[in-house]
Task: structure prediction
Amino acid sequence: MELLDKITELKTKILEEINNAKSSQELKNVTDTFLSKKSAFNGLMSNIKDLVGDAKIAFGQAMNKARNELNEALKAKQESLREEEIAKKLASESIDITLPASNEQMGGINPFHLITDEIIDIFVSMGYEVKEGPDVETDYFNFERMNIPSNHPAREMQDSFYITNTTLLRTHTSPAQAHVMDEKKGQPVKIICPGKCYRRDDDDVTHSHQFGQVEGLVVDKNISLANLKATLELFLRRMFGEKREVRFRGSYFPFTEPSVEVDISCMNCHGKGCPTCKGTGYIEILGAGMVHPHVLEMSGYDPKEYSGFAFGVGIERVAMLRYGIDDIRRIYQGDTRFLKQFNRK
Result:
């Protein structure tokens, strides 16, 4: 009788613990404590070896009945807790459908990226490779390799952002060209280098301290100014229209010799003269020239055997002329009213 009373006592205690469990984890703790193989309840089975006859039968029946009751109570509690937890989760994740819907607006691709992609497409179709370089450059690659030594007056034209005495935010993408020529080790080069540049130049609505640039470089045997002229005429007419007139004027850049400024006929007056082109009929679009012999020498090319041309065009400037944008800052502000005006066409 003492063993049967012990079974009843333990069963009552375990049922109370099951009913008091407030979560699935608490119920698991009850199971681990009171119904595991080494628990006091299951430990009662060790007494069966000492029983005989009717006492053994009565003990076995009592244990089986208690175990079944406990399992049923455990199953019912598990289901009850699961339903409660689901209800709490649904309540916490509910959506208030009475709130007004958010007013999402469709924008458009930024004209900066439209123009960049189009310039790249044009030159890739002409057999150019696309090469990029780091925004943070050494003074050596940004200036020295471009034939601009420390005492050169051209440095005053590029008010730079220096990080240390020898590193700065690049003022043009030309350093990427120097890196590529080092990699090619005297072999022909035909590349464009798109990327961002940085100068303290934000005095008006057409300039910004940060701007995009695509520079091009071709180095090979028998490259002449005629190749440069033909390349840029093809590029500019594909970019601005087949009827666009292209004009070359003599200029100066430290890294090219001879150097040229390239103009296109005004899209407003078609070369007749208007306020947009300041009465000249043309608008300056980019700078170019034949690679300076000293630049070739510094890059491991024999200027008596190799020659080349280089050019650089501002991405925002092309975008402003192409789309009639009046303020360069509009390109950077992310205003959806501005951006949704643009598409690839």
User: Anything to note?
Assistant: Strands lie at 129-130, 136-138, 167-169, 189-198, 210-220, 246-253, 256-265, 282-291, 307-314. The first helix runs from residue 2 to 20.
